[in-house]
Design a protein that fits this description.
The chain has 331 residues and is α/β, with parallel strands linked by helices. The protein has 15 helices and nine strands. The protein has one domain: D-Maltodextrin-Binding Protein, domain 2. It is 52% helix and 20% strand. Strands 1, 2, 3, 4, 5, 6, 7, 8 and 9 form a nine-stranded mixed beta sheet that branches. The longest helix has 35 residues.
């Protein structure tokens, strides 16, 4: 009888424990975070996601769980952006160019040769310009938590190294389906070929296009060193990737949880930017070792002069005040 009583007590205790665990799981706040690239060790999106997850879960003592969904598991960037607006997607890390589709002010960051260095970009993005962009985006139902670093975009091709604007002339470059990028290459005398990312590797391999513009990390992770010869460190566009959260998701959180999300994003931003800078230095050396011919450009001012018409074309949609504020800070 005693054994039965003891056994019953043990079973009751286990059931209570399981019940407590289930309640804890139900009370846990889950944030689903999606992005379109890989979860690789050097992928800038993945580095940002892992850092954010780590800081949020530590600061909340596990009461907030950040679940990660790389490789377009929550959709491509445009559907994710719409999901953020309507609250069907909690959070995302995505490129600046896509956000410009719902808030034209973000075309500012895609302007060619705007930023001369990472430090200069950070100064603008962390200051009044970044705050104004965030304010505009919040009116569309999306909150900006941090501006992460995708790294500068550079030109790769199979025709010739690019040292001055004239070297772009006559070369067919794949560009994103984005008017700023199309006009940038056309203004330098190149041939801009808008093309979906999924078609690009084969197009270069078969010679349909001569090259493309791309961040260093993606050259390496996508093995473009195997199909292109020349890597020119043009640094023509600073690639901003934003950590975003749906306003509807944020509004459901307690004030304490919202603070944890914001504070963790800033810590993750500093961590991710540092890792991205270190990776960029290593990647140039690695790509050279894999056979790419690497060069720097001789006169950045000449490039900025050649794309001046692009600035004037997009001034109205960006907003003259915002553009002038940014240009003043990058002098």
């Amino acid at each position: 009888m005693k054994r039965k009583t003891l056994l019953s007590a043990l079973i009751a205790s286990l059931l209570l424990g399981l019940g407590a665990g289930a309640v804890h799981a139900q009370n846990k706040t889950v944030i689903k975070l999606g992005w379109t690239t890989t979860d690789g060790a050097q992928d800038p999106y993945a580095i940002a996601a892992r850092a954010f997850k780590s800081h949020v879960e530590a600061a909340s003592k596990g009461s907030i769980e950040v679940q990660m969904f790389p490789n377009r598991q929550l959709g491509d960037e445009k559907p994710m952006l719409e999901g953020l607006r309507f609250g069907t997607v909690d959070a995302s890390i995505m490129t600046n160019a896509v956000m410009a589709q719902i808030e034209p002010g973000y075309q500012l960051n895609d302007l060619p040769f705007l930023y001369a260095s990472e430090a200069q970009a950070h100064k603008v993005l962390d200051g009044k310009v970044g705050a104004e962009l965030a304010r505009r985006l919040e009116t569309k139902g999306i909150i900006t938590l941090a501006a992460m670093e995708g790294g500068f975009r550079n030109m790769i091709n199979n025709k010739k190294p690019v040292q001055n604007p004239a070297d772009v002339s006559g070369v067919k470059y794949r560009v994103m389906q984005n008017p700023v990028y199309i006009d940038m290459f056309n203004s330098m005398g190149g041939s801009a070929v808008p093309m979906a990312w999924g078609e690009t590797f084969t197009a270069v391999q078969q010679g349909t296009i001569d090259g493309l513009e791309i961040p260093l990390a993606v050259i390496d992770s996508s093995k473009y060193n195997e199909v292109t010869k020349y890597l020119s460190l043009t640094n023509h566009t600073y690639s901003v990737i934003y950590l975003l959260v749906s306003k509807r998701t944020m509004d459901k959180l307690t004030p304490e949880q919202r603070k944890i999300m914001s504070d963790s994003a800033k810590l993750a931003q500093a961590e991710q930017r540092k890792a991205s800078a270190e990776n960029s230095k290593q990647l140039v050396t690695a790509l050279q070792a894999k056979g790419m011919a690497v060069n720097t450009i001789s006169d950045p001012a000449a490039f900025r002069k050649s794309v001046a018409p692009v600035y004037e074309k997009f001034r109205p949609s960006i907003g003259a005040d915002l553009l002038n504020m940014a240009l003043e800070q990058v002098k």
